[in-house]
Specification:
This protein is α+β, with helices and mostly antiparallel strands. The chain contains 4 helices and 23 strands. Strand 13 and strand 14 form a beta hairpin. The chain is rod-shaped, with a radius of gyration of 48 Å.
Length: 368
């Protein structure tokens, strides 16, 4: 009986020790399973981007010449030839069109004939005046005859002067029969054809100068101050990666009655021959000096009794609170001026329940 009791107690002790080891093992497995069961928290993040407080505004415009001249003949006549076409480049002194010179040549010949006649009359009057002076000196003529001969000579001189001016005018008119370009440019319109009779000053050829080009855009009245004081730049649709400096040259004094916009002309001093007339351009207006800010959703901001903060997420999934400088609060966003770096990723939802020691997993990303 004693031996039986000893063996019974021994088996009970072994059973208790085994149960204890099993309990410890189960507890360890439970802790490991619990550790493995803790999931990473999915979060929605936004990428911080700083930009000018007043965003840039862009407008579509057209490249036009600063000066476009309507050229016409300075004398009336019949068009004999038109020497240029639309789109053709012309240089200084290049003929553009000519008139029939028959009548102009006849006028020039008539003026020269009158000049020869006036020259003969003057010679005769001058000789008569000289004879009258000689006779008056000897006392063989009267003062009245002397005055008459002097007046005749003066009239002859005036007629000769008038004839000389008439010759000059007819020669000029003959030269005006050829319409020439007075500047380097491109022909934008031809409004006459051979055989057409034109009046003096009537537009015949329209030439756009190459001297300076400008971008013409329509500006709303809410941005007139920025157009006058801001920084302007122009990009072409054909060259989107190249930017041209622009300067406001002219703005309409009154708004267009239909669109309620103001026509503005921005000169492009750096535009070369690659910038063709009629190209489509994008004018960008920005404030000269403005603070750089970042806009984030209000849900990203939290405070634990101190400064407003944001949770920043790193590449390993760790989060850390970071104080920020708030400039203003808007209806849905918060505007910050510093505290986080450009390109940082911040949590934008559920920040009040987020634990800095907890791992997170980015499920989506927003850009602001």
């Amino acid at each position: 009986m004693l031996v039986r009791s000893i063996f019974l107690n021994y088996f009970r002790l072994l059973a208790g020790v085994s149960l204890a080891f099993i309990a410890v093992a189960l507890a360890g497995c439970t802790d490991t399973a619990a550790e493995k069961a803790v999931p990473t928290r999915p979060v929605l993040v936004a990428t911080v981007h700083y930009e000018a407080e007043s965003p840039e505004r862009s407008f579509v415009g057209t490249i036009k010449p600063r000066i476009e001249t309507d050229m016409g003949f300075r004398v009336p006549g019949k068009v004999a030839k038109r020497l240029v076409e639309v789109g053709q480049t012309v240089d200084v002194g290049q003929p553009l069109a000519t008139l029939d010179e028959v009548d102009l040549k006849l006028q020039a010949e008539q003026a020269e004939a009158e000049l020869r006649a006036a020259t003969g009359v003057l010679a005769q009057a001058a000789a008569a005046e000289q004879r009258a002076k000689d006779l008056r000196a000897k006392g063989w003529t009267t003062d009245a005859q002397m005055d008459q001969s002097r007046a005749a000579a003066d009239e002859a001189r005036a007629r000769l002067n008038r004839a000389q001016r008439s010759v000059e005018l007819t020669n000029n008119s003959l030269s005006y029969a050829t319409l020439v370009a007075d500047t380097r440019g491109v022909v934008t319109a031809t409004l006459v054809d051979p055989g057409q009779v034109v009046a003096s000053g009537q537009t015949a050829i329209r030439v756009a100068r190459f001297a300076e080009k400008e971008a013409v855009v329509a500006i709303p009245e809410t941005l007139l101050s920025r157009a006058k004081d801001g920084v302007a730049s122009v990009t072409l649709w054909s060259e989107p990666n190249r930017k041209y400096a622009a300067k406001l040259r002219e703005i309409a004094p009154a708004a267009d009655p239909a669109t309620r916009t103001y026509l503005a002309k921005f000169s492009l001093p750096d535009a070369g021959d690659s910038v063709s007339l009629g190209m489509t351009a994008t004018l960008t207006l920005a404030d000269p000096e403005t603070m750089r800010v970042a806009r984030l959703p209000l849900s990203a901001l939290f405070s634990e009794g101190g400064d407003p903060s944001l949770y920043i997420v790193d590449d390993k999934g760790d989060v850390s609170p970071n104080p920020v400088t708030v400039k203003s609060y808007e209806s849905n966003d918060v505007v910050i001026t510093g505290g986080v770096d450009e390109g940082a990723k911040v949590v934008v939802l559920g920040v009040q329940k987020l634990d800095p020691s907890q791992k997170v997993r980015v499920v989506s990303s927003l850009s602001f």
